[in-house]
Recover the amino acids of this structure.
């Protein structure tokens, strides 16, 4: 068995940042976007992030390049279908994908939340009927969204909660405190929606407190990234005591300079400490890699093998918000 064919579980992948570069190029030509579509390598340099950038905020700003492509229900449906197909081709059996209604809608006056969601659900359904994979969907609220917009997104998620396995708070962690969303997440949880929160990703003084706030104020059961807890034995013990699962994205953390190098990534330290964690891609379309690539990185850098990968996948399976009866059929 190769790493490509190794059965996998993934919990942290942004669907709206999983577009194939070939699809982005094709649509960019159709929409006549100001991008160098004639030369493939020039185009990749314009839309992909393959080298470390200054910080997470800089990376997030570059996401806006491909966001322009998500301009119609047909394109959004294609994005969802291809994202599921790509996951299946990477031997992923169970995957949770997340998307931000406000991110996709921004700048597209012809789109509304209902159109976006219907297109995504159609793409997922069509792909799920064709490929042997189960997909759970998470709705994202943006940290930098005004409270009124965040409330609008949360109410939309509640109205369509039959389609979502959970909710997430994402975006610029350093400049936007999560605590202002406490009432929103209290209501979401009261509606039965499970919670994962982006926290403890960039290396800044408030990173560990950000994780604690996500858990204690927003009721997070999982943390997206959370790698900065590794800088404190006390914080690691906190995660263990609270039984919090960390959705770790090694190469993404390097690209955003949340860690200075792959060799200095704390995943092995957290794994050895007994922290529940999973291996994830984060934004595979924009970062230009797949989950197999992450397995190869961990194999080559930290000596991970079948035993470690099996354990990470089992922890991911147990932490997944997908209904037990459904995910058990695929694992």
């Amino acid at each position: 068995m190769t790493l490509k064919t190794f059965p996998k579980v993934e919990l942290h992948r942004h669907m709206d940042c999983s577009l194939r570069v070939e699809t982005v190029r094709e649509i960019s030509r159709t929409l006549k976007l100001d991008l160098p579509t004639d030369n493939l390598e020039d185009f990749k340099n314009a839309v992909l992030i393959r080298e470390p950038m200054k910080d997470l905020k800089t990376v997030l700003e570059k996401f806006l390049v491909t966001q322009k492509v998500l301009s119609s229900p047909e394109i959004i449906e294609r994005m969802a279908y291809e994202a599921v197909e790509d996951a299946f081709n990477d031997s992923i059996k169970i995957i949770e994908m997340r998307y931000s209604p406000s991110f996709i809608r921004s700048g597209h006056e012809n789109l509304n939340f209902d159109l976006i969601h219907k297109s995504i659900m159609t793409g997922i359904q069509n792909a799920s009927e064709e490929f042997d994979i189960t997909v759970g969907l998470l709705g994202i609220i943006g940290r930098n969204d005004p409270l009124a917009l965040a409330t609008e997104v949360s109410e939309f998620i509640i109205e369509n909660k039959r389609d979502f396995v959970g909710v997430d708070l994402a975006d610029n962690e350093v400049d936007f405190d999560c605590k202002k969303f406490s009432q929103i997440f209290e209501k979401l949880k009261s509606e039965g929606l499970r919670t994962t929160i982006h926290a403890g990703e960039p290396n800044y003084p408030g990173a560990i407190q950000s994780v604690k706030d996500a858990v204690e104020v927003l009721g997070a059961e999982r943390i997206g990234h959370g790698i900065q807890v590794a800088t404190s034995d006390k914080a690691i013990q906190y995660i263990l005591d609270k039984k919090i699962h960390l959705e770790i994205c090694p190469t993404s953390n390097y690209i955003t300079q949340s860690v200075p190098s792959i060799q200095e990534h704390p995943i092995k330290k957290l794994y050895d400490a007994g922290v529940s964690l999973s291996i994830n891609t984060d934004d595979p379309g924009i970062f230009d890699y797949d989950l197999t690539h992450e397995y190869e990185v961990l194999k080559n850098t930290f000596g991970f093998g079948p035993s470690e990968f099996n354990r990470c996948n089992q922890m991911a399976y147990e932490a997944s918000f997908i209904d037990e009866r459904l995910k058990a059929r695929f694992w």
Summary: The chain has a mean pLDDT of 96. The chain has 16 helices and eight strands. Residues 28 and 228 are 37 Å apart (CA to CA).
